[in-house]
Design brief:
By secondary structure, the chain is an alpha/beta fold. The protein is built from three helices and four strands; from the N terminus they run αβαβαββ. About 25% of the residues lie in helices and about 20% in strands. The model has no long low-confidence stretch (mean pLDDT about 95).
């Protein structure tokens, strides 16, 4: 999703889809969206770019996704490198401040 006005409501609409890839850049999503994504068992790749409402706490919702292979986190002021430690070893994590 790339629309600066996109919120968690848009993620709720996508919840029923069998997505393999999810991208959100410069949106207004929050940890609520990560909670929703954490129930989308088909996800393999996630990229979050400058989604300022996402925090370390929200990452935990994604950590148990069974098919997740990679996550890209960039420009997230409320996500720390330490917070990315929730992901298992088989998930490739790219983290940029």
């Amino acid at each position: 999703m790339y629309c600066r006005d996109t919120t968690d409501v848009a993620t709720e609409y996508a919840a029923g889809l069998q997505l393999k890839t999810y991208y959100a850049g410069l949106t207004k999503i929050t940890d609520r969206s990560l909670e929703i994504l954490g129930r989308m068992l088909s996800l393999e790749s996630i990229e979050l770019y400058e989604t300022k409402g996402v925090t370390d706490a929200g990452l935990a919702y994604l950590a148990a996704l069974p098919r997740l292979r990679e996550i890209h986190l960039s420009g997230l002021p409320n996500v720390t490198f330490l917070g990315t430690g929730v992901f298992p070893a088989h998930v490739r994590v790219e983290y940029d401040v």
